[in-house]
Amino acid sequence: MTEIVPLADAVSSLIHDGDTVAMEGFTHLIPHAAGHAVIRAGLKDLTAVRMTPDLIYDQLIGMGCVRKLVFSWGGNPGVGSLHRFRDAVEKGWPRPLEIEERSHADLANAYVAGASGLPFSVIRGYVGSDLPAHNPIIKFITCPFTGEKLAASPAICPDIAVIHAQQADRKGNVMLWGISGVQKEVALASKTVLVTVEEVVDELEPRPGAVHLPHWVVSAVSPAPGGARPSYALGYYKRDNTFYEAWDGIARSRETFTAWMERHVLGTEDFAGYERSVAAAAVAEGARQA
Amino acid sequence: MTAAMTAPMTEQPFTADEMMTVAAARLIDNGTVCFVGIGLPSAAANLARATHAPDAVLIYESGTVGAKPAVLPLSIGDSELAETADFVVSTAEIFRYWLQGGRITVGFLGAAQIDRFGNINTTVIGDYAQPRTRLPGAGGAPEIAGLAGEVFVIMRQSKRGFVDKVEFVTSAGHLTGGDWRERSGLPGRGPSTVITDLGVLEPHPESRELVLTHTHPGVALDDVVAATGWPLKVADDLSVTPAPTAGELRALRGLHERTAAARALAG
Fold it and tell me: Which pLDDT score is estimated for B2?
């Protein structure tokens, strides 16, 4: 049976300095609470894998937790740049960031290969693109049956996958629904799996099209209600698009970013405390403007 | 939004962005299966669905197939897309079965930089290892550009964005021109139309160099030439894009108003 443990305990026992960590969730179900727990734990030298680094990795990169980033699209969706990611790549702040860059199709397929126990993935991709020239792990191979040239890249098998889901039961069986991204693939590709959930229920009620992860592939479940914010959990809360826009201003300078992280993440004990801190700041700001 | 343009007396004033979105929307046929990028492509595709193409199938790379958003999503995976989709599949499936499987008729992309052969750069400005400006990167675009039946690109036109040769080919259009596309073995036709706030460009049938085929109403040819980073060739039958109809403007403004109202409510 899978243990249901507080998030901070799960992070400190399952994630170690230097690990390859994949915290996934394609726009939906991004494990932000777990990202904060990694920052509070002071983990470092991580190889962080994620298709869309999003705000969660902008924070990890800006706080110096990441040595290498494996990714396929590093922007603030619909808003613009991830300023901490850019600062790390362009100026090496707060530390140089090694990057391994792929396309979405490649990275998704590399997780499929990992989940399938295969050493590499193969796609019809990158034709004419300059990316393979800058990323030597992308190779072109010849199909032994048709002679077609296809792109191959190594499977991704992280030390630990961290995902957010709507529900788990008390045995640690996990169910998630809506946009499922690569949640199933990253979990089955990884050696260890940590799932944060909106709620732990007595019994999961099966839903058509839902993704299930049985307790025997899940290492730990940690309750984290609201833990995907500012992304969303279908059926629980919507994406906080206003915060995604506000992040542009917060993360634009090193000083505002650092002050914000110290106040709201390092200065709080858990995600509930973080949310209270951000809400209190918003109220104070509203009063100041009124 | 850019300033209202001078339009013929009988028509409502409209902005350059509105003209661009309307011109792009008109290219989407009813029944088109369209792989839609976020931002300008998404606005145009949803305008098409709200006007002449109610049966266009919009697919977003978050795995939402047949999405029918009433308001424009900010991200590629807003709940509005999942809740209105015919069905939702995994990210791996959308790229494996639906795109690579050859089921997309139109890939609809935005870009930071495009060159005279329709190659797109969304990766870096400057050296790759020491970039002056690091852009978001590839996302789904290299394979959308390669594998969709054809590709529409929508972006505002400027000398910075329309360059002779992109510094980094993230997603190949017609690469070096001529018959590169056929020789590459790619199943898709590549970029067939580039829609901007000034006009429309299409690849020459042989050289595959982007050629100006339409200017939008009120736009001078010199302005388009000045906003292009290579000596822009002009089609023999250069014509003026028909101005947006009252119905198109009403639908587009309704979409933006609903989006703003929903955002204010969520606030």
Answer: 45
